[in-house]
């Protein structure tokens, strides 16, 4: 028996089909502007993914920002900040959500 989620639009067209794999969010953490890592062995339970949500967009106006560059594998997530474009160099802070599918 198949399991998952299927959604159709008003015309009867299949628009969402998650019958083979569903994403599972395992956790979240905050990036505070420093190079770090976040170990989590639960990422070995599937194909790991992450989503970064900046806390604001203020630094994007003048593009003098350092964004986090992520690496993810079965053992966890690590990140370092890119160099800024000018003298003010605002490091983008935010929350990372991660999990497996």
Task: Give the gist of this structure.
This protein has 101 residues and is an all-beta fold. Helix content is 0%, strand content 50%.
Architecture overview:
The structure is a single chain. This protein has one domain. Helix content is 0%, strand content 50%. The chain is built from no helices and ten strands.
Task: List its traits.
101 residues, mainly beta, three-stranded antiparallel β-sheet, 10 strands
Helical stretch count?
0
Q: Unreliable segments (pLDDT under 50, ≥5 consecutive)?
A: none
Q: Order of strands across the biggest sheet?
A: 3-10-5
User: Which structural class is indicated by helix and strand composition?
Assistant: mainly beta
Which percent band covers the strand fraction?
over 45%
Q: Give the termini separation.
A: 20 Å
Overall radius of gyration: 18 Å
Largest sheet: 3 strands, antiparallel
How confident overall, as mean pLDDT? Answer: 87
Total domains: 1
Using DSSP, what is the number of strands?
Answer: 10
Order of helices and strands: EEEEEEEEEE
Helix content: under 10%
Q: Give the overall shape, derived from the CA principal axes.
A: flat
Write the layout of secondary structure elements.
Blueprint: E1 5-8, E2 14-18, E3 24-31, E4 36-39, E5 48-54, E6 65-66, E7 68-73, E8 76-81, E9 90-91, E10 94-100
Parallel strand pairs: 6-9
Antiparallel strand pairs: 1-2, 3-10, 4-8, 5-10, 7-8
